[in-house]
Specification:
The protein has about 210 residues and is mainly beta. Helices cover about 0% and strands about 45% of the residues. A hairpin with a 6-residue loop joins strand 9 and strand 10. It is globular, with a radius of gyration of 17 Å.
Length: about 210
């Protein structure tokens, strides 16, 4: 997940099940930058040259027709035993030094950070996908955070499986892919980390057949 093209031409990726941040060099050499644990998911290069990682905290895994899938086949749960939440990592790609920046927002535990994108002001938006269990499912949210660990905010519009996140070219809108509904949502921005309204515009929705 989360491929990041680095200035030296290498590509840094996350390995969710392995729990690592990994570098692939142009000659095919592969090396682990950092052991992060949990479930490192989306990644982005910050303005300070560090790699920021949305860590979902880990999954349950199953094998199906030769594929490894991130949930238990019997229960459709993806929350692993002893799960204690997800978090946001900052990693120095030169040394592998890792700092956990955020584990909660306003006392709400992060349940499954999934993807993140930096804006022109040096902060980043990230989605919290949540976790599923045999009889229940988390609502997810869109967050905004400062790269230095000093600020984290939550957009109060609950979503079902917020996944990929991105910004418009001019930085005036933030887009979120809502997995469970098949919708693409857009929030207009009133300022750095501020949505004009917590109610998004639905740009694309899958049609029932």
């Amino acid at each position: 997940e989360g491929p990041v093209v680095m200035p030296d031409g290498s590509i840094v990726v996350t390995e969710i099940r392995r729990g690592t941040l990994t570098r692939v060099r142009p000659d095919g050499t592969v090396e682990v930058i950092a052991e992060l644990g949990g479930g490192p998911n989306g990644a982005a290069l910050g303005p300070d040259g560090h790699i920021y990682v949305a860590n979902n905290g880990g999954f349950l895994w199953s094998e199906l027709n030769g594929m490894t899938i991130p949930f238990d086949l019997a229960t459709r749960s993806n929350e692993p035993p002893g799960f204690s939440g997800g978090w946001i990592d900052r990693v120095d790609p030169a040394t592998g030094e890792r700092t956990v920046l955020y584990r909660e927002c306003d006392g709400w535990e992060l349940r499954g950070p999934n993807d993140l994108v930096f804006d022109a002001h040096g902060g980043f938006w990230f989605t919290d996908f949540g976790k599923t269990r045999a009889r229940s499912i988390d609502k997810g949210f869109l967050h905004y955070a400062a790269a230095d660990g000093s600020r984290i905010d939550r957009v109060p519009h609950a979503m079902y499986g917020p996944n990929g996140v991105g910004l418009s070219p001019d930085g005036s809108r933030v887009y979120v892919a809502e997995s469970f509904t098949g919708r693409l949502l857009a929030f207009d921005l009133a300022g750095p980390g501020q949505v004009a309204s917590p109610q998004p515009e639905v740009l694309v929705a899958t049609k029932s057949h």
